[in-house]
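Hi R.,

Here are the chain sequences for the assembly we discussed:
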Amino acid sequence: MTLLGAHISVAGGLEKAFDRGESLGCAAIQIFTKNQLQWRSAPLPAGVCERFLRRWSESPIQKVAAHASYLINLAAPGTLGEKSSLSLQDEIERCDSLGITEIVVHPGSAKENPVEEALRLVTGRLRSVLERTEGKRVRILLETMAGQGAFLGAKLEEIAMLVEGTDWDDRIGICLDTCHLFAAGYDFRSPEAYERLILSVDRLVGLERIGCIHLNDSVHARGRRLDRHSHLGDGEIGLSPFGYFVTDERFSFVPCILETPLEGIGHGGDLALLRKLQGGDE
Ligand SMILES: [Zn+2]
Ligand SMILES: [Zn+2]
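And here is the predicted structure of the full complex:
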């Protein structure tokens, strides 16, 4: 079975995420290892890492993924791009000292650059980050995007070009986001359409590269390129497609992470829906 979970706050200390995740019954969680809206962060003291690892070892939560800062733009030219590359390196080093093996990052925004040029910049930066973090077991997961503005990664082909640009490095993976895929125009609302989507991911990058799946319904209609998440079954995707993901044997042990609104039924409500789709108890 896939590992069900949610994006969890680390307010009050990184290890507090386990308390919150456990109270929701999560088998996997996603966290920010630092303030996602700030470039700089103090290095992680050894004591913090020890507490985190000790708490994890006592927890039923099997997998922890990290999401990188929203400020990072590997497609930016010049100093912003360089800063982004250093920031991703820092995120990887933080993950490594916390025992986290997956970091989700947005491929970047091309701004006014042509897409090909932007993809080349991202590829170069990924290669240099991989080089500078050689030997670390952390995998960089490129997230599929909704296609708002000039964000790269709304097309699976673009994600595949980035993977190819790193010579298919084992430490490059991908993160599928259902809301983003749908906003970008992909359909998976019938079993046949779902299978077509998964087969094209397999053909383009290989299913073993999927290190995380974000499960979010979409407020907006398919192909609108607008990124707004809603509770499962409350949006334009509808509830049943989420069942295809969470019961897919090909994704056993892949974390399926909710990033749905905290209001209303909250993550607890969405997790109950997913458990029901998996055929278990609510
Ligand atoms: Zn994201
Ligand atoms: Zn989103």
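The chain has a mean pLDDT of 96. The domain at 3-277 is CATH 3.20.20.150 (TIM Barrel).

Let me know if anything looks off.

Best,
T.
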